[in-house]
Amino acid sequence: MKAAVLIDEMNAISQLHRLQIEGIRSWRTFFEAFNQLLTTKYEDIEASYHFYGAMPPRKLDLTRFYNRKRFFEALERDDITVFRGYSHEENGVLIEKGVDVVCAVFRQSAQK
After folding, report:
1. pLDDT, tens digit (0-9, with 9 covering 90-100), for 20-38
2. pTM of the predicted protein model
3. Which of 33, 17, 76 is nearest to 51 (CA)?
4. DSSP summary character for residue 45
5. Which residues pair with 2 in a beta bridge?
């Protein structure tokens, strides 16, 4: 059986905070724990790990942009496929856009 774990970062973090879990140190460990749950129920699983997040605009905050870039590169070194949305500023707040759409497109293409 094949399984793809698709994570929209902001939604995942929101749910983890509801469970009073904060400060994930390793997304790879998070994915592997989820994979272990699937393996327990379905035995032989071929899983791939996908992370969906957004980059802050370089022109808005150069430091955050490069920190985020390094974070995504670290995920990729852990064999997690990263899909990037974008962010823009709205009334002084950074708004993530495009991530849910990229996730939905992946799901549609995987079902075919």
Report:
1. 877 666 788 888 888 888 8
2. 0.70
3. 76
4. -
5. 46
